[in-house]
Design a protein that fits this description.
12 helices; 4 strands; two-stranded antiparallel ribbon; disordered N terminus
Length: about 280
């Protein structure tokens, strides 16, 4: 079976709702490569050529006159074409809000390619890590060049590209937990004794860890554990986020400069308020 027949028989759609626009077969007569790709396109089950390109009758009659057909491009193309269907809004997702919302700088067609996608299932024009790196170069470099990188399959494992602004772009598990515990299951709570600000929603994994990659073991933000802990548990002021070290902790003594030697349950404990076990 030819790709043209597959497009017509498998998808069973007309070029437009009106017969005057011509059939999908007529589009395939000239646009064979696009028809071949579209036969396995996620859109093929729901739309035909004219839904995005408009009535093709004048284009066909004009011998392929490009001024007689619509080709969505840039912000305007996404606004009048993509977002007429892809406009669903939830408490965490929106195609019109957030860092990747449709705008002159970034739009649907910046990342997606309908007919020439390298990742057909999502219609992404480049492999995901390369695509994201074209804008998020610093984060991408951290996953490649840091001594302790975060080895993930793809950016969308942790991030939702169509999420609302701010931290909403981090995915959550089916249980409503932070995406980190989806892989790091040994850190999953709930715990009887949570680690400080995490119980209050004031801190999360990225408070201590660099999620994309770090120069320090365990992807910590600081080279020494005490440096990190004392950012919250400071003996110098009472206004920090964590409790102060007790008086017998002589912080000039090396034995008190590796907090996790004693506070081993650093992510939370069911037995010890001091996270000792």
């Amino acid at each position: 079976m030819s790709y043209r027949s597959l497009l017509i028989g498998g998808v069973a759609l007309l070029l437009i709702l009106g017969a005057s626009a011509g059939s999908a077969q007529e589009c395939a007569d000239c646009h064979e490569d696009q028809a071949k790709a579209f036969a396995t396109n996620p859109h093929a089950k729901q739309v035909a050529c004219a839904v995005c390109h408009g009535d093709g009758a004048a284009h066909i009659e004009g011998g392929g006159d490009t001024t007689k057909i619509s080709v969505p491009r840039g912000f305007a193309g996404a606004e009048t074409t993509c977002l007429t269907c892809h406009d669903r809004i939830t408490d965490r997702r929106s195609h019109r809000m957030g860092a990747h919302a449709n705008s002159p700088a970034v739009n649907c067609l910046s990342c997606h390619s309908i007919h020439h996608a390298e990742v057909p299932a999502a219609l992404v024009r480049l492999p995901q890590t390369k695509l994201c790196a074209s804008c998020h170069g610093t984060q991408a470099a951290s996953t490649r060049n840091r001594p302790h990188p975060h080895r993930v399959v793809a950016c969308a494992t942790c991030h939702d590209p169509h999420a609302r602004a701010g931290r909403e772009n981090l995915r959550i598990t089916a249980a409503g937990e932070t995406v980190c515990v989806g892989c790091h299951t040994d850190k999953r709570g709930p715990y009887v004794f949570e680690h400080g600000g995490t119980a209050l929603g004031e801190a999360d994994c990225s408070s201590c860890h660099e999620p994309h990659g770090s120069s320090n073991p365990n992807q910590l933000k600081r080279a020494r554990v005490a440096q990190l802990c004392l950012e919250c548990h400071s003996p110098l002021t009472a206004t920090t986020a964590g409790s102060q070290p007790p008086s017998f902790h002589n912080l000039n003594n090396p034995r008190y400069q590796n907090c996790t030697t004693c506070h081993v349950a650093i992510h939370g404990s069911n037995r010890s308020p001091q996270l000792l076990k």
